[in-house]
């Protein structure tokens, strides 16, 4: 069983930066692709970024390419989302998710591929 806890959300002005963290339970193996999703009120939950279990391969939604960076520290069982040049449109609850996989280069992009989800952390970008 994997438990995920997000942190780092908050209120920031447009153009600012935030770094989100997602910590997995201590005994979690590193054989998980890790994804960040977000959901704004009245909208579908959408994929933001994915890191393969090895951390070598990444995937980004077009809306965040060049602004967001996903990374992971497998020794700390933690995945990060560095968000720069934030826009009001980035306002949402951000969720961390894990997909059990033995493919070290695999970057799942579908919501139903993920097995575990965190509680979410609110990111609000003001103009």
Strand content: over 45%
Mean pLDDT: 95
Stretches where pLDDT is under 50 for at least 5 consecutive residues are none
Query: How many beta-strand elements?
Result: 11
Rg over CA atoms: 14 Å
Morphology: globular
> Count the helices. How many?
0
Helix content: under 10%
Ends: how far apart?
Answer: 40 Å
Order of helices and strands: EEEEEEEEEEE
Question: What kind of sheet is the major sheet?
Answer: 7 strands, mixed
Structural class: mainly beta
Kindly describe this structure.
There is one protein chain. This protein has 127 residues and is mostly beta strands. 0% of the residues lie in helices and 48% in strands. It contains no helices and eleven strands. The protein has strands at residues 4-7, 10-13, 18-24, 32-39, 46-51, 58-60, 68-73, 78-83, 92-100, 116-117, 121-126. Strands 2, 4, 5, 6, 9, 10 and 11 form a seven-stranded mixed β-sheet that branches. Strands 1-3-8-7 form a four-stranded antiparallel β-sheet, with no helix packed on it. A hairpin with a 6-residue loop joins strand 5 and strand 6 (58-60). It is globular and about 40 Å long. The termini are far apart. The mean pLDDT is 95.
